[in-house]
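Following up on my earlier thread - several people asked me to post the actual chain instead of describing it. Fair enough. Here it is, all 429 residues.
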Amino acid sequence: MMKGGCLACLMVAIKTSRVAAQDGGEPVSQVDEPQLDPPQVDQEEAAIAAELAAIQGNSAIETVDPVTSDTAASNVNENPTASSRGLSNLMNPAISVNGLLLGGYSNRHESEVSREREDLFSGFHLQEAELQLSAIVDPYLRGDVTLAGNIDGVAFEEAYVSTLEIPRLTIRAGLFKASVGRHNELHTHAFPFLTGPLPWRALLGPEGLSDPGLSVELLLPLPFYAELKAQVFEGEWPLFEGSIADHPATAPDESEPDRRDLEDFAYVGQLRALFDLHETTTIELGATYVGGRNGFRGQTSLAAGHAALKWRPIESARYTSFEWQTEWVWVHRPRTPGEESTGGGYTHLRYQFEQQWWVQVRAAVLGVPGPSDDRIWRGEVLGAHVLDEFAALRLQYGLDRDERANAPFVHDILLQLVFSMGPHPAHAY
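Reply from S.P.:
Thanks for posting it. Predicted structure:
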C-alpha cells in the first residue's frame, strides 16, 4: 500500500504545479518550457493512473470477505461492471405499457352490438391496456411476452421465443399471432383505425387469429425482399369450431359439441415480397392460406391477399407521407350449417400533411361473393393529432349498414387517446 500512496502523491504534485502556473504562481520561463514536454507528461500520467488502478483493484480483491472470496475475486476479474452495479439492468427485460381510452356516441343500441364483430357503442371505455416485456434470453433466443385486457379481464396476448443468429431463418414457438395478411399481426394500439376492419372482425374474430404454435420464417435469396412463412397452430378459432347449440348438425344431447380431434391443427402459409418502386416509394404484396379440419369434419380453407403502398419524400419525411393498403379474405367451411362460403375486404388511405397531423379514410364490405342484399357495408373517416411518439388523439366518424336485416344506418363518432410508456418496440413496416 506504500507504493500506491507514493504514486498518488506524485500525481497530485504534478497536477498542483500545473494549476499554480495557470493561476499566476511562479512564472515558467521560456527557457524552461522545452524541458517540460506536454505529450511525455500526459503519457506518464496515463501510466501512473493505470498502475494506480491496478493496485486499487488488487487491493479490492485482497479485502473481500474470506467466506466469499473465490466468487468475489472472480466477479472483479471477469466483469467489474456487473460487480459494481449488483444486478445489471442488462439482465432485465424492456418493459412498456400501451393504453387506449375511448369515448363517444353511437346510435347503435348496446343490445344490438355484435360481439363477434366487437361493434362500437356509446359511453366511456378502457378499450385496452397492454403490457409488453421483451429481452434477449441468451445468444440464441429472444423472448417476447404481451398481456392485454380491459375491465372485463386480462389474458396473455402473446408469449413466445424466437431464434437469433440463424442466417435467413427464424423459428418462433409459443403463443403468437398468425401471419394472415398484414392486419392480423397488429396489436390493438397499432391499429390504423379504432377497431379492426369489418371483414377481419367478423370472419377472424375480434382478437384475430392467435394461438399456441410453431412458426418457421425463411428469407428467400432473391434480389428483393421476400419472406416465406410456414406455421402450425392449435386452431381453436371460430373458423374451425363445430359447436352450435340446438342445431341439427350438433349432437342431439350436445355432449359432443365440437368434433375436432386433438391432432386437428390449423396450418398457415404466407408469401410476401417488398419492392422498391422509387427511392421514396415501396410496395408490399402478399398471399396467405389457412387450412384445417373443422368441428363438423369438413376442411376449412381461408385465402387472403394484401397490397400496401407507401410514399415518403426524402426531403420532408417528417412532415408528409402517404399510405394505401387493401386486403381481401375468402372463407370456405364445408359441412357447416348456414353459409359455407363468404368473404370481404377493405381499403384505406392515410395522408400525413404536417408533422403531427394526418387524415385517413377506410371502406369495407362483408358478404362478397354473395347477393347484394346480403352484405354489410362500413365507412370510416379519421383525423389524428400525434403529440409525439408516446401519445396521440384520434377522432373517428363511422357509418355502416346491414342490408341483410334491412336495418337503418348506424352512425358513431368516437375520440380515442393512445398513450405509451417505456421503450416500446418498433411497429412492423
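Residues 1-41, 58-87, 249-255 have pLDDT under 50 and may be disordered. That should answer part of your original question.
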